[in-house]
Amino acid sequence: MTKYARLLGITVFISVVLLATGCFNQTSEVPAEQELSSVDEKQSETDAAAEAEPAAEAEPEAAEEVHDDLEDFNAFSTLYAKSSGIQNLYYEFELRVEGVSREYYSAWVSEDHIRLDPFDQKHSIFADKKEKTVQVLDRTTGVLSPADYDEAFFNGMMSPAAFDESLDQDMFEHVHFEGSALVDGLPCDVFEVHSSDLNVTYYLWKDTGLSAKVIAQITGFPEYEYYFRSLKPDGATVEALNPPADTDVSQEMVILPSIKVGQ
């Protein structure tokens, strides 16, 4: 599961999706006494076998597996990691499931601050990640109100930037360079990444390594499309990340507006 999360650039969202769809395998519980008995039996068998057989000669260690697509993996890893240093960013995010829009919002993200404008443009959400505070601006009334800080929500936001950690070869089975494409007017390199029952196609902006589009398909489940439009590194200005100074401030708590389309 961790492998999937890192591969997609998702820490919380993909886990929620898989849990909701029942993708996790559930193992049956075994009584502790039964487990201990089984371990003892296996240990006895191992000891008996060791006494009966002469020590086998040490075999040379197998060479590390080398993927036949190592060149494509290196190209993907290098370009993907290029975006990990981008701490300030503006983008418009859309999630589509089987072609139907499910989430849509505009995001201004810096190292410590986030602003989200949901799809209906009726609210702006201002979050301070360091202080763990949230304010919601009702753009129809001009009133700014506090809300509970939802750490899972903000940490689980989809981002076009990579994590600050390198990709390992054992995270995937195959990586293929599929060519180049224009996405939202940006020149992108296209890579298809396979890992177990998860296939992901990345459209990485050549200049920055940011994901302009990601298509994820888990065997037996709907196709998920992630769009990151209007990408602007350094686009989260101080003015955009803070509520307007002339707003009316309320002390009454409100709930966070939904970023889901139609809710």
Helix content: 10-25%
CATH superfamily of the domain at 68-249: Lipoprotein localisation LolA/LolB/LppX
The overall pLDDT, averaged over residues, is 80
Q: Write down the CATH topology of the domain at 68-249.
A: outer membrane lipoprotein receptor (LolB), chain A
CATH class bucket of the domain at 68-249? Mainly Beta
Q: What's the tally of helices? A: 6
Distance between the termini: 29 Å
Order of strands, widest sheet: 7-8-9-10-11-1-2-3-4-5-6-12
How many β strands by DSSP? 12
- Helix-and-strand structural type: alpha+beta
Largest sheet composition = 12 strands, mixed
Rg calc: 24 Å
- The appropriate CATH architecture of the domain at 68-249 is Clam
Helices and strands, in order, run as HHHHEEEEEEHEEEEEHE
Coarse morphology: elongated
The fraction of residues assigned to DSSP E strands is: 25-35%
Uncertain regions spanning at least 5 consecutive residues: 1-6, 10-43, 54-66
Summarize the helices and strands and which ones pair or pack.
Layout: H1 2-8, H2 13-21, H3 32-52, H4 70-81, E1 89-97, E2 100-109, E3 113-118, E4 123-128, E5 133-138, E6 143-147, H5 151-155, E7 174-183, E8 186-195, E9 198-205, E10 211-218, E11 223-233, H6 238-241, E12 248-249
Parallel strand pairs: 6-12
Antiparallel strand pairs: 1-2, 1-11, 2-3, 3-4, 4-5, 5-6, 7-8, 8-9, 9-10, 10-11
